[in-house]
Specification:
alpha/beta; Rossmann fold; six-stranded mixed beta sheet; two-stranded antiparallel ribbon; 8 helices; globular
Length: 217
């Protein structure tokens, strides 16, 4: 779910304005997975713009206070969730930790970095949700360490059907500042796209694999 419609529109517009989100159905991007996509999102760019960085930090903190007020620990997901998580933890005056994609192969072989204790309740911070697989792997690591997870907060979600299924199966509530539907509406109303591109953009969201296969090569 989104935090509020007003925030969803503002975040979508900010990300479009700084090219953190690019839309190009006619010249698809290729993700690391090999999937062809009409959208590319790099929310880390927001960190380079102080006013936008502050706005996102404040809205993430507000959402956590409202939706996950039992949390006494902020946890970022490596790597892009780490800087956002630190900013939010500072705003909320809460301890911070982060979860690696895999345990270190040297030293203490930690998967979770930072001081955490069994019985703590964490809110997990992500910058972007696609399928939710890597995000939920962090949730699982926290639960295995005896940490309760109040839920996950992200800047943006593609709101893919598979992600909704994955979060439901994991029993993890997810709140995002903005999502794909609000992005499309905002991009259209502010002339980042025109109506001729909407059908293709929504077709990708509804079935990314089918869209990718149709646009391969």
């Amino acid at each position: 779910m989104i935090f509020t419609p007003e925030t969803a529109v503002k975040v979508a517009l900010h990300l479009l304005e700084i090219n953190a989100i690019k839309l190009s159905p006619e010249k698809p991007f290729t993700w690391a997975s090999g999937l062809h996509s009409p959208i590319y999102c790099d929310n880390r760019l927001a960190l380079s713009y102080p006013a936008i960085r502050d706005f996102i930090r404040q809205e993430l903190a507000k959402a956590i206070k409202e939706k996950f007020n039992t949390a006494n620990l902020v946890v970022g997901v490596a790597t892009a969730g780490i800087p956002q998580g630190i900013l939010v933890a500072q705003e909320l005056n809460l301890p911070f930790a982060y979860v690696r994609s895999s345990a270190k192969t040297h030293g203490m072989t930690n998967r979770i970095e930072g001081f955490v204790q069994k019985g703590q309740t964490a809110v997990v911070v992500e910058d972007l949700i696609s399928t939710g697989k890597s995000s939920l792997a962090a949730v699982e690591a926290l639960r295995e360490a005896g940490i309760q997870v109040a839920g996950m907060i992200s800047i943006f979600t593609y709101d893919l059907p598979v992600a909704r299924e994955n979060f439901e199966k994991a029993g993890c509530e997810m709140v995002s500042l903005s999502d794909y539907t609000y992005l499309m509406e905002t991009a259209l109303s502010h002339n980042f796209i025109d109506n001729s591109k909407l059908e293709s953009l929504y077709a990708w969201r509804n079935d990314p694999q089918k869209w990718s296969e149709a646009h391969a090569g």
